[in-house]
């Protein structure tokens, strides 16, 4: 049986933890930063955890996680 292919777009956007959770980078920290508060920008730096219902869809695209 051939190897399964990984969706390259998903590999660049998501990371799987050892516990099986899916981490992602939060949006909104690329430009127009002057109007955003320091607290808001600091919170956007932290990685987000994808909800379990969405994580199932991502895990299909990352077969070898």
Q: What's the quick description here?
A:
By secondary structure, the protein is α+β, with helices and mostly antiparallel strands. The protein is 37% helix and 12% strand. It has one domain (8-61): Irregular (Factor Xa Inhibitor), CATH 4.10.410.
Description:
- This protein is an alpha+beta fold.
- The chain has 3 helices and 3 strands.
- Strands 1-2-3 form a 3-stranded antiparallel β-sheet.
- The radius of gyration is 15 Å and the shape is elongated.
- It starts with 7 loop residues before the first helix and ends with a helix.
- The mean pLDDT is 96.
List the secondary-structure elements in sequence, H or E: HEEHEH
**Spans of 5+ residues with little confidence (pLDDT < 50)?**
none
Distance, first to last CA: 19 Å
Mass-distribution shape: elongated
* Major beta sheet, strand line-up: 1-2-3
Structural class: alpha+beta
The count of strands amounts to: 3
What features would you highlight for this structure?
single chain; 3-stranded antiparallel β-sheet; 3 helices; about 60 residues; Factor Xa Inhibitor; alpha+beta
Task: Draw up the topology in text.
Elements: H1 8-13, E1 14-16, E2 22-24, H2 38-45, E3 48-49, H3 52-61
């Amino acid at each position: 049986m051939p190897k399964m292919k990984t969706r390259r777009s998903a590999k660049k956007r998501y990371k799987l933890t050892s516990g099986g959770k899916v981490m992602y980078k939060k949006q909104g920290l690329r430009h127009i930063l002057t109007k955003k508060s320091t607290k808001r920008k600091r919170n956007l730096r932290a990685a987000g955890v994808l909800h379990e219902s969405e994580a199932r869809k991502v895990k299909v695209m990352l077969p070898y996680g």
